Amino acid sequence: MVIKIKDTDTLQAALRELCVFLAKENVPEHSVFDSRLVACELLGNVLRHANGEARLQGAVLDGFVELKIISDHVIAPTAEVKNADLFAEHGRGLFLVKTLCEERIYIEEDGVRVQIKINAEM
Questions:
Q1: What is the C-alpha to C-alpha distance for residues 114 and 103, in angstroms, rounded to an integer?
Q2: How far apart are CA 109 and CA 102, in angstroms?
Q3: pLDDT tens profile 43-54
Q4: Whole-structure pTM over 0.90, yes or no?
Q5: What is the DSSP letter of 84?
Q6: Residues 105 and 76 sit within 8 Å (Cβ to Cβ)
Q7: Alpha-carbon dihedral of residues 46, 11, 35, 52, nearest 10 degrees?
């Protein structure tokens, strides 16, 4: 599954498509929810801060949901997110991402690739 995201409308459509894809792959409901939340946070950051398109790639491999968020522009978190203030306007999303999944960030010539793994087993 590969989806291009360029604005909030395509972001919402991508999240719906992701949920349908994961349900067809028999991913448990809680992992579908976590995957949707993580994808929404990261793709929203790309739209908000990178002024470009993003691509969402999704697969289910070896008991994990693997999401790749690929940005046309380099935007990488500049600080380690340790504890988020529940009422803070910034930093909560990355805290959620780090709490829910294994994450790797790759800075590449044509942008940033974030690889996310979420446990898809019961």
A1: 7
A2: 23
A3: 888 888 777 788
A4: no
A5: -
A6: yes
A7: -20
